[in-house]
Design goal:
By secondary structure, the chain is α/β, with parallel strands linked by helices. The chain is built from twelve helices and 21 strands. Helix 6 (136-149) links the parallel strand 8 and strand 9. Helix 2 (43-56) packs parallel to helix 9, helix 5 packs across helix 6 (136-149) and helix 8 (216-235) runs parallel beside helix 9. The structure holds ligand LLP. Residues 67, 69-70, 88, 111, 171, 208, 211-212, 246-249, 282-286, 322, 326, 380-381 line the site of ligand LLP.
């Protein structure tokens, strides 16, 4: 295994010439060993992205609850824990992953618009840091569980601030028409009922307005609202412990400008400082997306139009669903050829769906069957959203760390695929 050069992430030693590597390790070598498709993650990038956000808070009290939904492969969860991160879990199964990765219940916030009674009970029994409550009905169910188990449950109330995150409609959550959280008026009314409900301890107000947000304005407005409500409740005597501002900061998939971690944190601090409350955030994508690439091999090249060809690769919507689901853009570059060229290609997966397009209208150097390509910024919402459609096995995952690489999740086999069937 090649030695690291000290540079972090995916790069070419001399731009335009050499093979694409990850933290100095040859992607060609990894793919030759593991086969394709394979996700490759850079531990150095994961660490750097976490630390930049963490450092931006300076001495202001805060906790980063990494959103496991972005990437919860056990080794990645463990790496985040080693960095000092806590987690945001969106299902009881993410809570179990967090527990197996070594997180304490006090490091877990539990979010989700539809937590089942079983999920709530497990979270109550564990005594997680907070259950982020999304409705009056959920609060009542939670209270009944708490009473039955003789526990006091720590809750945060999730407010739907009716703010347009100006992201893709499928990943915007903060508008009234979205299913998430409680409208402000209802949230205020619900909080007032808490004084007579000793099994419920209100510890925070929670907001999260969407994902892949590339303008700070919606994040500022959501933070301002959470701060205002928190101040108000503090004045009424509610002993709030922190403000939870969710996740959502976007990354640059296409090289365009996005807010820096420092600007983002500056905006949050600007709004929340007046409450003197610690800040919790739940970043997922901004930490994990740039840390991962999906490696795939060209299976076939065939004519499409007079001026363009199809490139059929061995990864598609089953491995990386984002392009098919959100029309999301991911850079695609050949591993052993320059990143761009003058051939017009439509890069598609092997799945029997016309929506299984990984990259539209791309200009690349000439590619042939057997060539390796890297689909960039796939570390978040990539492997976690993979499916077995067409009975395709879940891809392998590799972590590169300190010039060494190892398989952190082996590719599924046909026996794995059939293991639950009779
Ligand atoms: N907190 C809550 C309550 C969330 O719902 C989410 C994401 C996060 C934190 C983390 O957000 P981030 O920092 O990653 O933006 N599958 C979609 C993204 C769905 C995001 C869902 N919620 C995609 O591939 O773009």
């Amino acid at each position: 295994m090649a030695q690291s050069t000290g540079l972090a992430g995916f790069y070419r030693q001399t731009p335009g010439n050499d093979d694409l590597v990850c933290d100095g390790v040859s992607l060609t070598a990894i793919a030759a060993s593991t086969g394709t498709p394979v996700y490759v993650y850079s531990a150095a990038v994961l660490r750097e992205r976490y630390q930049v956000i963490d450092a931006a808070f300076g001495d202001y009290p805060h906790a980063l609850h990494y959103a496991l939904k972005a990437n919860s492969t056990l080794a990645i969860a463990r790496l985040m824990r080693a960095l000092g991160s806590a987690v945001d879990a969106n299902s009881v199964w993410e809570i179990e992953v967090a527990r197996r990765a070594g997180f304490e219940p006090s490091q877990i916030v539990f979010t989700g618009v539809g937590k089942s009674p079983e999920e709530l009970e497990r979270a109550v029994a564990l005594g997680v840091k907070a259950i982020n409550v999304e409705s009056g009905g959920e609060l009542a169910r939670l209270e009944a569980i708490a009473v039955r188990l003789g526990r006091i449950v720590r809750v945060a109330i999730r407010i739907n601030p009716d703010i347009d995150a100006k992201s893709h409609p499928h990943i915007s959550t903060g508008l009234k028409i979205n299913k998430f959280g409680l409208p402000l008026d209802e949230a205020r009314e619900l909080v007032q009922t808490l004084t007579g409900r000793p099994s419920l301890a209100l510890v925070a107000i929670h907001v999260h307005v969407g994902s892949q947000i590339t303008s700070l304005d919606p994040l500022r407005r959501a933070a301002a609202l959470a701060a205002d409500v928190s101040l108000d409740l503090q004045r009424q005597g509610f002993p709030l412990e922190y403000v939870d501002l969710g996740g959502g900061l976007g990354v640059s998939y296409d090289g365009g400008a996005v807010p820096s971690a420092a600007d983002y944190v500056g905006v949050l601090l600007g709004e929340v400082r007046r409450t003197s409350l610690p800040i919790v955030i739940e970043p997922g994508r901004v930490i994990a997306a740039p840390a991962g690439a999906l490696l795939a091999r060209v299976i076939d090249v065939k004519p499409r139009t007079a001026t363009s060809d199809f490139i059929i690769i061995d990864a598609g919507m089953t491995e990386l669903m984002r392009p098919a689901l959100y029309d999301a853009f991911h850079r695609i570059e050949p591993v052993s050829a320059p990143a761009t060229g003058d051939r017009h290609y439509e890069i598609v997966g092997p799945v029997c769906e016309s929506t299984d397009v990984v990259g539209r209208d791309r200009m690349l150097p000439p590619l042939a069957a057997g060539d390796l390509v890297a689909i960039r910024d796939a570390g978040a919402y990539g492997a976690v959203m993979a499916s077995n459609y067409n009975r395709r096995p879940m891809p392998a995952e590799v972590l590169v760390d300190g010039g060494e690489w190892r398989v952190i999740r082996r590719r599924q086999t046909i026996d794995d695929l059939l293991a639950q069937e009779s």
